[in-house]
Amino acid sequence: MLLVAGSLTEPGLPPSPTPQLVPDPLSTTGYQRAVELGGLLRASLNSVLVAVLAVPLSVLVAALAGFALARLAPRTTTVVVAASLVALMVPATALLVPRFAIFRFLGLTDTLVPLIAPALLGTSPLYVLVYYLAFRAVPADLYDACLVADLSPLRTWWRVALPLVRPVTAGITALTFVLTWSNFLDPLIYVYDRDLFTLPLALRSLSLLDPTNFPVFLAGAVLATVPALVVFALAQRRFLRPDD
Amino acid sequence: MSGLTLAGVSAAYRDATVLHEVDLAARPGELLVVLGPSGAGKSTVLRVVAGLEPATTGRVHIAGRDVTDLRPGLRNVSMVFQSYALFPHLSVAENIAFGLEVRDVPRRTARERARAAAETVGCAGLLGRRPGQLSGGERQRVALARALVREPDVFLLDEPLSNLDLTLRVEMRAELRALHDRLGATMVHVTHDQTEALVLADRIAVLRDGRVEQVGTPEQIWRTPASTFVARFVGSPAMNLLPADAAVCRTGDAPPLPEQPLEVGFRPEAVTLDAAEGTPATVDRVEVIGEDAYAYLTLAAGHRVVARVPAARRPARDESVRVGVRWADAHLFHADSGRRYVP
Amino acid sequence: MTASRPAPRIRPDTRARRQHLLMLAPYLVGLVGLMLLPALVTLALAFTEYDLLRPPTWVGLDNLTALVDDPIFRVALLNSLVFAVVAVPLRVLVALGLALLLHRRAPGVGTARTATLLPTAVPEIAYGLLWLWLFNPLYGPINQLLRLGGEHGLTVLGRTPPPWLTDPTSARAGIILMSLFTMGETFVVLLAARRALPRDVYEMAALEDATGWDVFRRITLPLMAPVLALLAVRDAIASLHFTFVPAFVVTDGGPPPYATTYLSLFVYQTGFEYLRYGYAAAATLVMMLLTVAALLVQWRLIRRYRRFYQV
Description:
heterotrimer, B: CATH 2.40.50.140, 19 strands, 33% strand, elongated, C: MetI-like fold, 1% strand, globular, AAA+_ATPase (chain B)
């Protein structure tokens, strides 16, 4: 059992930046060169910019939509939930070409807009559905009490419903961040200007380096991984806790 | 003053009608208890009054205002839910002040009124706590304070005592009645517990399958039940009900029965087991509850009857007794409709 | 009382309904704009030739017939299907094994769960780079490990270690191996499913002195079968997508002849490298049809289990 766990731990942990199993000459040159060569600094800023815009927007969209679904008439809800389930099943690659055609038509390629746009979907319909389930699990009496107190839906959402699902929001925010931060496919397709490269895309240009430069691109990989892992590790404590 | 009137109100859930043209009124300052078995539509009455469910026909008036088409927040009612519906993320003080603050009452005023309301129901010591840290009875008090802080025209209470254990329920029942007397407010209280209804109410409305079966004071409901349903629902064990021509010994002043199919109802208290000319019966089983005992009997003709006797003088099982019914305490109902027979 | 105009007969909930719809609106825009519309565009583009420079021209079924004859497409389709058939059951099995191991409370279980989930959180590209290094035949730790104890660059058994990314078979195996560690989502769902199983059934089995294998075969497996089946279908659909980055970064579709060119990579290359958008859309259409087929299977599974459990 420990063996399995141990073997799995290995690839997940930040890899050592040297080719040996035990890093012999421990050096940070890999990191320095990674930053210089790959323009990682600039790319990090872009990634941060995208995340700062997309993550709050995405969580907001998902939370609002999930709440509306939980409160609307069953017929409306059924249609939207079914559509979301189907959308959830469509592999992202299947929509590459048409989405690209649409963004090109709108003149938005080679900007960061297509990278932020998925926030309108709540990044993944899954998160909307999770919010929907969470808001539906709030006792109906609480919503009725809000009605009697003459709270508008928006204020009910903000003052009562949202505070009640705080753990859900924490988890979804973290996952949204990880997904947005790791997004590789979208930048690959929409962004050509090196100044707009996000971190994953910049890493890819590192991967085209000579194979002897492993330390360099592994250093880059570590840099890109750390924020995602930190956020994820913090969040997973939350969504694995209820059953402990 | 602020009363409440329902005129011909119907309501539906999905495709099923759950209220059939209900006419009901609570006079200003009255405590009206809506009593009925589960599924009778009691809660729906409250929810229609609050505006949480739409009325498909009829009008609802609160304090002389037609509120049928107003949204809940504009009806000036407050509601105590069976689950209390306290907001778990807010403190007790915030819970009580909630209805005021969202109506943009200045924060300080809201807090002062919340404190006053808390003192009225005796939960002022809990203001800083969260609902999760309270016992059932304490939550009940907070829910009451939240309802009365807004000084509504009508209080709606949806089985507020049903989640408490028996001792606490009895205690809160008395407090609720005292609170009502102090405030002089109009209250509509829903319950399925007939004892609660008899103890609390100024008047009781008995509901059955979405229709009002009888409205009256507890005394009227007890002494002159309008139907076999009311007769059997109020009182425990339930009233005995036999065909009026069943062979049973009538004691006391017993006028001749009218010539039509009738049923006779009499409470266990009206049965005696040692009547001289009594109908023979055997004792099936005996339940002793403190000073009282209930004897479950089968009459010679096969009818079953319950009798209340002092525990000290209870019969033994399988013993033969002679049953008499004090006819002055018996009720006659039409056999077909179940309505009370009025000579 | 003063006589007033009759209040306009408005259902009390219209205002609330309007506000709720407003709250739903952004998501609906996203759903339509980023899902529905693209799906329709695919349908339209699939029958055109389009290179972004000139307006699309209608070519009818030419794209689809060309696809059937296109050897690369056929290889890609086959690769994708093989991947789904081999990797998906393996992924679900690994996830199931771990979920069964880690569903109890025990020291270290929390850490082990975190460890299981972490690879899923690593950015795909970084994960790809990591494996590019791991797989490197000369410098890669995997082969370094395999060479331990051997001489002259051979393994202990005296065989050459696999030239991971340059040989078609081992490249395919490599991609599958990579994918085995990123089953975090499936693991989480299975963990929850296992914990939801009734405890008394297991206590009953313990009273009957059932062995671990019997318990697994007769109780755990049948009870979890519905979840497993659904997860497998879902994973199969997702595999159309998550083969992209490994194939793109680690093997670049190679080694020849297109050993790791999957449908996703094929679509990308056709569209964004050769600028044949219409043709790529046609391939996308095939991908969507596969998805629909999988969804139908899933739907039937759900219905069957519904009937079975009478829910």
